[in-house]
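Fold this complex.
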Amino acid sequence: MIRGKDGTIIPRVVIERLPRYYRYFDWLDGKVEKISSKKLGEYMGASASQVRLDLSYFGDFGQQGYGYNIKKLKQELANILNINSETSFIIVGAGNIGRAMTRYKAFANTGFMLKGIFDINPDLRGQKLGNVEIRHTDEMVQFIKDNHIDIAILAIPKDEANEVTKTLVDAGIKGILNFAPLDLDVTNHITIENIHIIDKMLALSFMIHRA
Amino acid sequence: MIRGKDGTIIPRVVIERLPRYYRYFDWLDGKVEKISSKKLGEYMGASASQVRLDLSYFGDFGQQGYGYNIKKLKQELANILNINSETSFIIVGAGNIGRAMTRYKAFANTGFMLKGIFDINPDLRGQKLGNVEIRHTDEMVQFIKDNHIDIAILAIPKDEANEVTKTLVDAGIKGILNFAPLDLDVTNHITIENIHIIDKMLALSFMIHRA
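Structure:
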């Protein structure tokens, strides 16, 4: 349970919308000075009152009759989202997705620093992907402890995903971005965000076939 | 608006949950014969009544006092999700994500057939990624028309994303899986599913910092 400024629990969907707000403020910055909650709602596909409620969990940002100051709120959201501080992460799995993630430049722009990449295949050990070399998963637990890593991107087959998750949690990982096509065992008391590519494609396909 | 069996509008969140139901039934198939809505709800993180309501949009599947027959409902969901029929798609952008998607084996298992990959860089033209060669974006519109392509995976920088989307829609594309870090212009009357990797990482990071 994560609580906002006044102690109320922040709904997870609101937390998950926060990066989108940041993207809009980043996009608006330099274009306009301020924005109303109504106009911001139009961008977000939400009502003005929803926008005001969403942002109220994180602070008193708007001024009645003025709206939100773009530069100021962008800065506030950047602080709230830790964009200007460094957050280390590792990638588990040096397959197609894992490799694409090692080269994904947007991480560095938002404070995410790739510290290591691990794979179970011993033949890949020592291979360099950008500035980071592939290590064997045997070294993973010690590496996480030594480098105080909090976040892992999981890009491995689903049959191994729960066992590897348990290892990660035992080593001290607190959050996982999961690309494996399953819902990870949640008894581990860990924060998980999923990217289920096939689920998205199936939903998309269903909607266009039915539309 | 997509309507269910009895004419009621199916909420988008329900459609987006459907592939997850399918994954559970696929996983349960061979392990057990039937499942109650209560037990299914435990897997889904939902109540029994939510599960019954979700599935009721698509048909009369359960039997009171028996529950859901795994094999039968898996088959029904596969049909509803068009998993056993072929759905063609293209990839736009032969960068890191686009290339990872060309090699993503799970597409073929769920009926998605990659027909083409396009990039604006003329130096990449003719390069083979698996069985598919990279074509220049100049050839894209004709290719979509000739091959009756409905779905595109968009894996290009955000500054070009809206212009390319307009081209795709004009050529006949009906659905986009968008990896570009922006919300595409929705005035195009097209179905969009987003995979916003940085949004997910920022939400994850926020939650573990606040937990």
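Chain A touches chain B through 59 residues (CB under 8 Å).
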